[in-house]
Specification:
Elements: H1 2-14, E1 20-21, E2 30-32, E3 41-46, E4 52-56, E5 59-63, E6 68-70, E7 82-87, E8 92-97, E9 100-105, E10 110-112, E11 122-127, E12 131-136, E13 139-144, E14 149-152, H2 153-156, E15 166-172, E16 175-180, E17 183-188, E18 193-197, E19 210-215, E20 221-226, E21 229-234, E22 239-242, E23 253-258, E24 261-266, E25 269-274, E26 279-283, E27 298-303, E28 309-313, E29 316-320, E30 327-330, H3 331-335, E31 343-348, E32 354-358, E33 361-365, E34 375-378, E35 392-397, E36 403-407, E37 410-415, E38 420-427, E39 438-443, E40 448-453, E41 458-462, H4 463-468, E42 472-474, E43 477-479, E44 492-495, E45 501-505, E46 509-514, E47 519-522, E48 536-539, E49 545-548, E50 552-556, E51 562-566, E52 575-581, E53 584-589, E54 592-597, E55 603-608, E56 614-618, E57 623-627, E58 631-636, E59 651-657, E60 660-662, E61 674-677, E62 684-689, E63 700-705, E64 713-714, E65 721-724, E66 730-739, E67 750-756, H5 764-836, H6 840-866, E68 882-885, H7 886-898, E69 907-912, E70 918-921, H8 923-939, E71 947-954, E72 958-965, ...
Parallel strand pairs: 1-26, 38-42, 61-67, 69-71, 75-76, 75-77, 77-78, 78-79
Antiparallel strand pairs: 2-29, 3-4, 4-5, 5-6, 7-8, 8-9, 9-10, 11-12, 12-13, 13-14, 15-16, 16-17, 17-18, 19-20, 20-21, 21-22, 23-24, 24-25, 25-26, 27-28, 28-29, 30-58, 31-32, 32-33, 33-34, 35-36, 36-37, 37-38, 39-40, 40-41, 41-43, 44-45, 45-46, 46-47, 48-49, 49-50, 50-51, 52-53, 53-54, 54-55, ...
Helix pairs in contact: 5-6, 6-8, 7-8, 8-9, 11-12
Enzyme class: transferase
Catalytic activity: ATP + protein L-histidine = ADP + protein N-phospho-L-histidine
Pfam family, one: HTH_18
């Protein structure tokens, strides 16, 4: 029996698991993934700036507290295992890798050369101030940092140390502890003495593999981590002692948590070893808890300058913050169930049980520690622990110790005996309101139970009667919106020190109820405004009411005073829970946790980012329980907020330009205060950090551009990225700082200059060029306006001159018109006398008279033509054509010029290759052309031996007239411009010769109008030759000149002329060939035609009183009977406008005054012949075509109908186009188009025309007065009727009657 007991005892003391508990009490980690390229993290280091450097299986990383940045220089050779890191100075890191030692310049972010004779596979580095000790798979090396030399210690101590694989190094005063694959060694670097330290109680069949070394807290020894347990090495005794823990676990890494606690990293998790009690607690990865250890394989550990613990695992790194003081309990820790619950209420009853209510039922447990205790979960689906509804709104323990819950299933009472809940159905007297959805419950000082409900108002219930009831209870007291409440749903209720009941309505306001008289009062703040953003309320021990809102708290004292306190002006978080903790008020929002000092009324941030919806203070344990989603956070009541005041720096850690990493290598972004970019690199993302890795208080980074109106822009919690999009070129000073929740800057302000270069077209030189261009532009504008003003003045002056010229020309034109009529009476008789006279002397005198009259006519014509615009031309068929014999015509003009006394010093020669040439041309313009050319040839030939030659020639292609002189000539420079109006050559030879520069301009214009071509050749001081030519096709044959007499009776000719002498002359001259009748004006001619006198042809003057020739022609063309009568217009105005108006009016021929009588006869003859040929052709067509029945067209029928309708309503003064369209049965717009198309008149004009014609008929009958006729044709206004009548017939109704008489 004793042997059995002894054996059991031996097994008990050698069985290892009894020495450690299952999990550590504070396992809350922040886990950081290294990414897809890397997984395991082996080592850490912190540089002089405070940046954390991480060695992984895929190279070097830096971590700024927000994100990891890889430092591999985009070179695959740097993406390798890094086993150890040593900080050499403020510039360099030494990296122990599988490819040897690398030097990394962390000021410039670049790799630099290390001596090539170093080891290839490095596992340990130790820097002791002058030397860098290097442990590798090929032995021990020492590198002199200043001299940059390396020596192989393993080779020197080969006989003593051997070619050992070195895994870890530790400095022991003047000695070096060396952990190798085959045990532990000590080395005296001065003497070279090496000693091997044997590990006691080690597995004899295994190598004494030393993984890690750590100096003890009292520095009297070192802990040795091996593949089979932990040892302690005493520096004074030089002895090794095996520790009674983890005898079969490989100790890969070690670090001191405090003076009595070690953290041991193994392949089976992290262990907390209490060295004073030899206690061991295990921390391991839990897949259910995202804040558990990242992985159970721990490769390395490191404590930074703020005592944060960094743990490198096989799946990233875990941070155990030094400032962390809370315990985080996932729901499964105290329920052993995987179900979740968001807690809204936490209390502890007088029996020590914790009650936690949320959206998934009610939990009752006797512990909220890490160890598992007894717990019960009440839910709707539980068999023995059932509830009416899972959503728990409130848990309340009354003064008698009875536990009540308010839920969406009503009010429930806990029975301690049966461990079950009893449900009550509470309604008001009407039965319309109930307490089915209960939100809050409490008992007042009078024993009444108050229940806040959703849609049922607030109930006041006698507690004793409610308990004694069978579960159904009718409450006599109910407060609702009808009694003055803000709403029928109240979220919270409480009783103040004056027995007043306060009710909070979420985001709506508060009411205060007096239970004695039932009076309801609205609660207001210190400004007298309703508290509309109220979300939570609490009454403290002093009787003060604290009302949580969005980012602020309203304090209402027991004396009624109120004050609003702002705690979160930036986030404006909604208060979700409040709890009195000693002399502090803790309050939670969706953004974090705050603490309010009730006396000082100041706030302190305790935690940020935690979603807290319930709070309970355990005064006995001095702990605050915070309920959240699927977890409870336990925090000590005494909190020290804030961060380390010494860590006030802000560091620029990364730059991204246009979404690409910038300055990752050989740039040294963390040590720069200026960033220079090209103009296209204007989309920036700058990342900053204060390198305070353990900060969990919730300070935020803020930034602003330095300037007069700088304004801090607050980043979200956990965000360190400043986005600068579409920056314009220029220099910006960006300021970045850390701000607390009160809006105060709590760090140094970091400034960085961002210089975005200007593009080439906007840099300094470009701006200088632009300035020059701008100055030039300004000068140009000044000059432009100066010139414009000058031109404006010139134009004004020119306008005045032109106006004066126009007045002169108008006067001359009028005089010319008056002169042309008597001139016609001279030329026509003279032409006949010349033809009849046989006396040679008389004939010569008559010819001289005719020539001078023609010259006067030419001068008058030039005066009238001069006012035309440049480039204005007349079509050939609009010219006044006459048949002339060109040779004699030219010879006559040549003789006139040669006989001029002023040109007596010149010799003239006329020659022609043909005797006669007949052409049809405008005599006046042709004479002007030849006269101008000959006159110029004479004027610009001052020589005594001057010569003028004129030669006429005819070829198959053309008839040419060449005029040649040997005068002063024209230079080649001036020759292209001689046909320009008012242009004169600049030669000094012609300065004394008078001229206007108009002659050759008229020559060019007239030749183009008549179809002649003009060409000029000249040489200065040698003479000029002008050639005008006409195509041979324009020459008339002799048969074209024969005039055939009319066959049959004489034709009727109507002469319309207001000048009695001219009309008499025409009548007498043409009487032999035509039956002539004379009318004094156009009106008289119309009346003759209307009285059935239809002439065969009309010769009319253009300008006459009452009605001119053009208006007469228009009226004749409107009448079917007179529309085809040929009309010849006689006028002294031969300008383009008169010609256009004549064509538009239907004039057949246009003859200018003075006219050639023979030409007029030929025109009359040709027009009559043309009309006869047309009539004959129509008759032949009629005979040759088969007879068809004549059918009126649709348009004709429409016009007849329209006329009939107008005549039927002609006396109706209110008859309009609208009524006409209704009578005709056609739309107004369509009727307008049709009448306009058929009559060229609008409907209004057509109606007026019919009325006027009807009026004329009535007036001719002489049966009615003018007034009676006016009313009969639908007019009521005499002046308007007279105006319309005169517009239609050219005379007033009275004159019309008198003339007709």
């Amino acid at each position: 029996m004793r042997k059995i007991v002894l054996l059991f005892f031996l097994c008990f003391i050698t069985f290892e698991p009894f020495l450690f508990s299952n999990t550590h009490e504070f396992p809350f980690f922040r886990n950081i993934s290294v990414g897809s390229r890397a997984s395991s993290v082996n080592c850490f280091a912190q540089d002089s700036l405070g940046m954390l450097w991480v060695g992984s299986n895929s190279g070097l990383y830096s971590y700024d507290g927000y994100s990891l940045h890889q430092h591999t220089a985009a070179d695959i050779k740097y993406q390798t295992f890094i086993y150890s890191i040593a900080v050499l100075d403020a510039t360099y890191l030494a990296l122990g890798t599988e490819h040897g030692v690398w030097l990394y310049n962390y000021n410039k972010d670049r790799y630099e050369d290390f001596p090539k004779d170093g080891p290839s596979d490095v596992r340990a580095l130790l820097f002791d101030g002058e030397y860098l000790w290097i442990g590798s798979l090929t032995g021990l090396y020492r590198y002199h940092v200043e001299k940059r030399t390396i020596e192989n210690y393993g080779e020197q101590l080969k006989n003593k140390l051997g070619n050992q694989t070195v895994y870890t190094l530790l400095k022991e005063n003047d000695r070096l502890l060396i952990g190798t694959y085959n045990g532990l060694y000590t080395l005296n670097s001065s003497s070279g003495e090496v000693k091997h330290l044997s590990l006691p109680d080690y597995n004899v069949h295994r190598n004494q593999f030393v993984n890690s070394l750590l100096t003890s807290a009292d520095e009297r020894g070192a802990y040795v981590g091996t593949e089979y347990g932990l040892y302690y090495y005493n520096y004074s005794t030089r002895q090794l002692q095996k520790q009674p823990v983890l005898k079969k676990h490989p100790i890969k890494s070690m670090i001191a948590y405090d003076s009595k606690t070690l953290l041991l990293g193994t392949d089976d998790g992290l262990f907390v070893y209490g060295t004073d009690r030899s206690s061991l607690e295990r921390i391991k990865h839990d897949s259910r808890n995202p804040n558990s250890l990242a992985n159970n394989i721990v490769w390395g550990m490191y404590a930074d300058r703020n005592q944060n613990i960094w743990i490198g695992t096989d799946l990233g790194l875990s941070l155990w913050a030094h400032q962390q003081a809370e315990k985080k309990l996932p729901i499964y820790r105290f329920t052993s169930r995987s179900d979740g619950n968001r807690f809204y209420k936490i209390i502890q009853d007088r029996h020590g049980w914790y009650w936690l209510g949320g959206d998934n039922g009610l939990i009752r447990t006797n512990t909220l520690a890490d160890s598992i205790g007894e717990s019960f979960w009440y839910r709707m689906d539980a068999q023995d622990l059932t509830l009416p509804h899972n959503r728990i709104r409130d848990i309340y323990e009354d003064p008698e110790g009875l536990l009540w819950i308010a839920s969406d299933g009503g009010v429930n009472l806990f029975d301690p005996k049966t461990k079950a809940f009893r449900n009550f159905e509470i309604t008001d007297r009407t039965g319309k309101r109930n307490a089915k959805w209960a939100y809050d419950v409490f008992e007042d000082r009078g024993g009444q139970l108050w229940i806040a409900t959703y849609l049922g108002g607030i109930f006041s219930v006698d507690k004793s009667k409610l308990i004694a009831s069978d579960g159904k209870y009718t409450s006599p007291d109910n407060y609702n919106i009808g009694e003055g409440l803000l709403a029928d749903f109240a979220n919270q209720i409480l009783q103040d020190s004056y027995s007043q009941v306060w009710a909070l309505f979420y985001n709506k306001g508060l009411n205060k109820i007096d239970p004695k008289n039932g009076r309801v009062q609205l609660v207001k703040d210190e400004q007298g405004n309703p508290v509309e953003q109220a979300t939570f309320m609490l009454m403290d021990k002093e009787g003060c009411i604290w009302i949580g809102q969005h980012g602020k708290v309203l304090r209402i004292g027991s004396d009624g005073s109120s004050r609003t306190l702002v705690f979160d002006p930036v986030g404006l978080g909604e208060v979700t829970a409040m709890e009195e903790v000693g002399q502090k008020i803790w309050l939670a929002t969706g953004d974090g946790l705050w603490q309010l000092d009730k006396k000082l009324l100041t706030f302190q941030t305790l935690k940020h980012g935690q979603d807290i919806s319930a709070m309970y203070y355990n005064a006995l344990r001095k702990e605050v329980y915070l309920g959240g989603i699927d977890e409870v956070l336990i925090m000590p009541a005494q909190q020290v907020g804030g961060t380390d005041s010494s860590n006030r720096q802000i560091v620029l850690t990364a730059i991204y330009v246009n979404n690409e990493r910038f300055g990752a290598y050989d740039y040294g972004v963390r040590y720069r205060d200026e960033i220079v970019l090209n103009h296209g690199q204007n989309n920036l993302r700058l990342e900053f950090s204060n390198l305070d890795y353990g900060n969990d208080v919730g300070y935020r980074l803020v930034y602003a551009f330095k300037g007069r109106n700088e304004q801090w822009i607050v980043l979200e919690q956990g965000d360190n990225k400043v986005q600068l999009a579409n920056l314009s070129s220029g220099t910006y000073v960006l300021q970045v700082a850390k701000m607390d929740t009160q809006g105060k800057i709590v760090s140094d302000i970091f400034e960085v200059d961002v210089d975005v270069k200007y593009p080439w077209y906007a840099d300094g030189w470009a701006r200088f060029l632009y300035a020059l261009l701008l100055i030039g532009l300004i000068l140009w504008i000044i000059n432009f306006f100066r010139v414009r003003n000058k031109l404006k003045l010139e134009r004004m002056e020119r306008k005045k001159v032109l106006e004066l010229s126009k007045h002169k020309m108008d006067f001359l034109t009028t005089i010319s018109h008056e002169l042309k009529t008597p001139l016609s009476l001279i030329l026509a008789p003279v032409s006949q006398l010349i033809f009849r006279t046989r006396d040679t002397d008389k004939k010569k005198q008559l010819e001289n008279i005719q020539q001078n009259a023609l010259k006067i006519n030419t001068l008058i014509q030039e005066v009238m033509e001069f006012d035309k615009k440049d480039g204005e031309s007349v079509r050939i068929n609009h010219l006044i054509h006459s048949r002339i014999e060109l040779v004699s015509f030219t010879r006559r003009l040549f003789d006139i010029i040669s006989a001029t006394a002023a040109y007596g010093h010149l010799s003239f020669t006329f020659s022609s290759s043909v005797d006669t040439i007949y052409i049809e041309s405008d005599v006046t313009k042709l004479e002007s052309v030849l006269t101008n050319i000959l006159t110029n040839a004479c004027k610009y030939n001052p020589k005594e031996s001057g010569r003028i030659d004129l030669h006429i020639s005819q070829t198959e292609e053309q008839v040419a007239i060449v005029i040649k002189d040997n005068g002063i000539g024209i230079s080649k420079e001036d020759l292209p411009y001689v046909f320009s109006k008012f242009y004169r050559a600049s030669s000094s030879l012609n300065k004394h010769i008078e001229g206007t520069g108009v002659g050759l301009y008229l020559v060019k214009s007239y030749c183009e109008q008549m179809g002649w071509k003009v060409q000029i050749d000249s040489e200065l001081a040698a003479g000029t030759q002008v050639k005008i030519s006409l195509a041979t096709s324009a020459i008339l044959m002799k048969e074209d000149l024969i005039s055939h007499p009319f066959d049959g009776d004489r034709r009727k000719l109507l002469i319309v002329e207001d000048n009695e002498e001219l009309s008499l002359f025409l009548s007498q001259t043409l009487e032999g060939d035509y039956l002539c009748k004379v009318a004094r004006d156009g009106r008289e001619a119309l009346e003759l035609c209307e009285k059935s006198y239809i002439p065969d042809i009309i010769v009319s003057d253009a300008m006459m009183p009452i009605m001119g020739g053009l208006e007469m022609a228009r009226q004749l063309r409107k009448n079917t009977l007179t529309s085809t009568i040929p009309i010849i217009l006689l006028t002294a105005k031969s300008d383009k406008q008169t010609e256009h108006e004549s064509l538009a009016a239907g004039i057949d021929a246009f003859v200018g005054k003075p006219f050639d009588l023979d030409f007029l006869k030929m025109q009359i003859n040709q027009l009559i012949k043309r009309k006869e040929r047309l009539s004959e052709q129509l008759r032949l067509d009629e005979i040759s075509k088969p007879r068809i029945e004549v059918i009126e067209s649709t348009d004709e029928r429409l016009l007849v109908k329209v006329t009939q309708v107008i005549e039927e309503h002609i006396d109706d003064s209110d008859f309009t186009v609208q009524r006409l369209s209704e009578k005709v049965g056609m739309g107004v717009k369509q009727l307008y188009r049709k009448i306009k198309q058929l009559t060229a008149l609008t409907p209004v004009e057509y109606i007026r025309s019919i009325r006027m014609k009807k009026a004329a008929i009535l007036l001719r009958q002489k049966k009615f007065t003018v007034a009676e006729v006016m009313y009969m044709v639908g007019y009521s206004n005499a002046s308007y009727f007279s105006k319309c009548f005169q517009s239609e017939f050219g005379v007033t109704p009275k004159v019309f009657v008198e003339r007709d008489a």
